[in-house]
Specification:
The protein has 451 residues and is α+β, with helices and mostly antiparallel strands. Helices cover 16% and strands 25% of the residues. It is built from ten helices and 24 strands. The protein has helices spanning 4-7, 40-44, 55-58, 62-77, 79-85, 113-123, 183-192, 259-262, 356-363, 394-397; strands at 16-21, 28-33, 36-39, 89-91, 95-98, 106-109, 140-142, 148-149, 154-156, 159-162, 227-230, 234-244, 263-274, 293-296, 301-302, 310-311, 330-331, 334-339, 342-345, 375-377, 405-406, 412-413, 421-429, 435-446. Strands 6, 7, 8, 12, 13, 14, 15 and 20 form an eight-stranded mixed sheet that branches. α4 (62-77) crosses α5 (79-85). The longest helix is centred in the N-terminal third of the chain and has 16 residues, at 62-77. The protein is globular.
């Protein structure tokens, strides 16, 4: 279609989403082509596309995924096929999009060494929190699937116990992933795992209540004692999540070489966290401070569409044997983080320390069963370069509130204010030599509810 390739949504992309026509009708599955949604149920006469979720289609497995993708691409490339498809094209402005899946589980791994280092310097200055198990395997844990919101929906400012306490330099008990790694893993889990997709099953929150605490307006407001109220340090991070298509059976593993047979595609995430509500997370778990909301893009990009984005992983210490990749699953994905339409960061995934095939292999190494629709995410992504704009969260961009970010319009942000509109977009190299779009994850900060 004219202009589809230039917009990043040509036949080499074809992401899937769930839509409903504004004029009425049931929610169902479509594929995006340019500024249109291709209504797949009547076009392909397939009942799995008449459902309000991608799960029935994804559960059919990789042979079906590739067959449908090839069929749609073939139609759009052929004059007779385009004539067959055109009656089922609906302009985007005539539809409403819904979350493509309702995951049973959402597991996040910290893939970005740069984000881990930046956040550790802010939250646990002077501490060595990246030693120990970091180089052996990706660290992470479970989040709250219920925090996944409809695309573009509001994100109410959370309320909780805003803790003011002496800095504990990241010390904590316990370890991520159920391990027994002692202080190193516990400190890492406490120091910088604040967002929903990065919250672990053990470890306590890192230091808060520092001089960088700010109110919603960005003004200094260091609490002198624990108090209840709206978060003053609402943050957001840019992430990429991988959507499980074919489950594994309980007790079996998904090897790194089998990644593409089990993962359907990738979806953008804006992961929201309240940096000043750690007291709500004791004993540790994925509670409000770390799991405010997860805004997802309405479009799931098929894994096959990312073929041109695949690159070798960065140089690193050899990991544990079950994580030693054979195929290249580093991904050259360029993110853009915007606040109120103004670009504040451009992190890149290409230099990530851990790759998605390793995340899934680690998650199932103990025989954990994944289900169709589950999410496995990268955690906040920060680029490997020295530029400030490559950092993927407001925590990093503003130095924990010490050096508020100046937006292009001259306004300042230490953390997010009520009414702020946040969006995460991304692009990747396309199979046709151009680029593909990965959609947009967005949400607007709503005032805290009154009690």
């Amino acid at each position: 279609m004219s202009g589809a390739d230039e917009a990043g949504y040509g036949a080499d992309n074809l992401p899937y989403g769930v839509f409903r026509e504004r004029a009425g009708g049931a929610a169902r599955v479509g594929a995006r082509i340019g500024g249109m949604v291709l209504d797949l149920a009547p076009l392909l006469r397939a009942p799995e596309f008449a459902r309000p979720s991608l799960v029935p289609f994804m559960a059919m497995g990789p042979i079906a995924w590739r067959s449908v993708r090839a069929r749609i691409s073939g139609m759009l490339a052929d004059e007779a096929g385009r004539a067959q498809a055109e009656p089922h094209l609906i302009p985007l402005e005539r539809v409403e999009m819904a979350a493509p899946v309702a995951p049973r589980a959402h597991t996040g791994y910290l893939c970005s060494l740069e984000y881990a280092s930046n956040a550790a310097r802010i939250l646990a200055p002077g501490e060595d929190v990246l030693s120990g198990p970091w180089e052996d395997r990706p660290l992470g844990g479970g989040g709250r699937p219920a925090s996944v919101t409809d695309p573009g929906g509001p994100v109410p400012r959370p309320r909780g116990r805003r803790a003011a306490r002496p800095a504990r330099n990241g010390t904590a008990s316990g370890a991520l992933n159920g391990g027994g790694e002692g202080r190193d893993a516990g400190a890492l889990g406490s120091a910088w795992l604040p967002s929903e997709s990065e919250s672990g099953a053990a470890g306590t929150p890192g230091p808060t209540g520092t001089a960088g605490d700010t109110g919603p307006s960005g003004s200094a407001a260091r609490p002198t004692e624990d108090d209840l109220g709206p978060s003053r340090r609402l943050d957001v991070g840019a992430e990429l999540a991988f959507v499980v298509g074919s489950p594994n059976t309980p007790g079996s593993r998904i090897a790194v070489v089998d990644f593409a047979e089990h993962v359907f595609g990738a979806v953008l995430i804006a992961a929201w966290s309240a940096r000043d509500l750690p007291a709500e997370d004791e004993p540790p778990g994925p509670l409000p401070g770390r799991a405010v909301a997860t805004s997802v893009s309405p479009w799931v990009v098929p894994l096959d569409a990312l073929g041109a984005a695949r690159i070798p992983a960065r140089d690193r210490t050899p990991p544990l044997p079950h994580l030693r990749s054979i195929a290249d699953w580093g991904l050259e994905v360029a993110f853009e983080l915007r606040v109120n339409g103004q670009t504040v960061a451009r992190p890149r995934l290409g230099g990530a320390y851990w790759t998605p095939d390793q995340m899934v292999a680690q998650l199932t190494a103990d025989g954990t069963a994944l289900e169709t629709g589950d999410l496995v995410s990268t955690g906040t992504v920060s680029g490997a370069g020295p530029a400030r704009e490559e950092r993927g969260s407001l925590l990093e961009l503003g130095g924990g509130g010490e050096h508020p970010l100046v937006l292009p319009d001259g306004t300042e942000r230490a953390f997010l204010e009520d009414g702020d509109r946040v969006s995460v977009t991304a692009t990747a190299p396309g199979l046709g030599g151009g680029f593909i779009g990965l959609g947009e994850a967005e949400g607007t900060v709503a005032p805290a509810t009154q009690e």
